[in-house]
Predict the 3D structure of the following.
Amino acid sequence: MKAIVYSAAGDSSVLTLVDRDVAAPGPGEVRVRVLASGVNPTDWKARAGGVPFPEVVPNQDGAGVVDAVGDGVTQPRVGDRVWVYLAAHGRPTGTAQEFAVLPADRVVPLPESIGFDVAASLGVPAMTAHRALTVHEFGPSRLAPDALNGRMVLVQGGAGAVGHAAIQLAVWAGATVIATVSSDAKAELARAAGAHHIVRYPDDAEADRIREIAPDGVDHIVEVSPAQNAALDVEVIANHGSVAYYANNNGDEFTVPVIPSFAKNVRWQGVLVYTVGSQAHQAAAEDITAALRDGALPVGESAGLPLTWFPLEDTAAAHDAVENGTTGKVLIRVADETA
């Protein structure tokens, strides 16, 4: 089979296309014939930062068809269409290869009507968004239709992959969603994703514009840039609101206005999908799949998430595209669905 591998940390030039034997799944594992692989910022950052195994296949997310199962595996079954998450977390077997072996609990059956482009776009972004929307002190721990009825959600950076998923999941769960964006083009994407209100930045009156929409404050904030937005977040948040921050855009440290923050009982919640634990992973996988069944997570420019495709042999270019901030989702076409 064809696979992309790297054996040393560095820029995308360390990625190499090789031929490898197809591995057999062990107990509790499944083998997936990968059709599409999703690229996230953590994929290129992991490649640049270190090599925990002698050889690593990159990329955490993907989609395909179960090809074989190991001992003890009853679900999923051979032939099932699936989406996968955290394929390379703690393992050297990511999705930038034609066949990937991974734990059965990281392989999720895909509703029949859902395309592999949608499936490969889930994983890290959708699970991060799910967690960000379920950490409120008095909010739901699971998402479903009506779970967020009556709640105001602010998605900072609504045109990113996590922002896009947060808008879609929050709307599916019944929330009113405000998205912030930096351009007219990104405003159109956030609106296509389902955001009810759009606020442009930079704008000295940004807090006023948000408070006009949410005079009682916003309940949940999905935050991509706490270093830039912490003071604004405290200004517009409701009493007992939560700020779930999942990235370090525009700075590695942030400061918070202390008195306004504790006066509103604000919960600052870090979110890293790799370390939230299996219970949170399982909850997210189940709720995301339910949203898929309801048609709530479409992708493509018309749905607010433009897709940029690369062939497997151009995985290095795909990593570079993500590192350089390509808007939307970068996917790798590993194999033809009919092959």
Q: What stands out?
A: The chain has a mean pLDDT of 97. The longest strand covers residues 29-39. The two ends are 13 Å apart (CA to CA). The CA atoms of residues 12 and 316 lie 5 Å apart.
